Fold this protein.
Amino acid sequence: MSNATDHHHAAAPWTRLWRTGVLHSCASGIDGNYDDGFARFWLRQFEPLHEGARIIDVGTGNGAIPLLAQSISQARNLHWQLHGVDIADIDPPGSIDARSCTYQGIAFHPNTSMTELPFGDGAADLICSQFAFEYAPRDLAITEILRVIGTHGRAALVMHSEDSLIHTISRSQWEACHWLLQESDVFDACTRLLWHIAQATDAPARRRLSLDPAAESARTAFNAAATQLMERIELSPDAQVLQTTAQALGRMLQQPWQSPDDATTAVQALRAWAQDEQARLGLMLEAVLDGAALQDVVQRFAASGLPCRTGKLMYRDTMPMGWTLEIGHE
Ligand SMILES: C[S@@+](CC[C@H](N)C(=O)[O-])C[C@H]1O[C@@H](n2cnc3c(N)ncnc32)[C@H](O)[C@@H]1O
């Protein structure tokens, strides 16, 4: 695969997530935009910025961080130039309901890597990254961020840490996806059962179904797979992916189908959704930094001569959510 194809391939699960209209990557745990410790960290970064400042959020997703900056810029009547860059094919204004937010004044750059930013040397007053820098090739991203902030700009990163709640939940979710996709038979068993059910479109056909040994054996196999799924949900209550799958399969068994093909397509779509979840979770687990990896990143930024400050981002005072790293003069 060429480098560009490679990038596109890794970005595809992200593109599909952002196009579903979730605002940010912690949407299953935080309603609305990032709040509490996240919002406080970002407001502190925006505080010193002057009229007309240029802020670039890398790995922006659906632009949660530019939206936080936009609200400050509007409240203080400062005309900041806000940019969101992502390697995925993002389209926040087309993906998020315009009644919940407007992206006025924010320019988005889809299909753009933070390792090749479309900005000149020293063009940014602040580069932001929330759970994004660590997903990119780090050496290239560091060189590029340093080029674009120059000697006067700053960068602020929130990065996944090994001790974070997000890491714990993501690992459990990844293991659940692995079980669902690589060990359980529930998707295939559901497809086989729906194939019979979708053909029985009237009452006599449904009666015949209960006498059809092939349909009965499909039902028994599905019930066994579904029982295993329910047991697994009890074992991993924080693996939301299992509950979502069980609910979706339950609805599929209740709803009328036009044809067996329609039913098969619906199960395939559910399986593809779980595969995307597993792909993104796998990228997250690879991106997470332990203390030594953080120090490595800090040293590489610090080699530029700019000051670097690290910290921990806490949510609701008790939950560690990630590392923070601030680069540049305060
Ligand atoms: C966990 S999401 C975070 C999105 C957003 N910052 C948020 O907090 O909601 C990581 C994002 O980084 C993007 N990403 C990964 N590698 C990238 C790269 N090399 N350049 C730009 N974006 C990248 C992904 O496409 C994805 O949208």
About this structure: DSSP finds twelve helices and seven strands in the chain. Residues 11, 14, 24-25, 58-61, 64, 85-88, 113-115, 130-132, 135-136 surround S-adenosylmethionine (CB under 6 Å). Residues 174 and 281 are 6 Å apart (CA to CA).
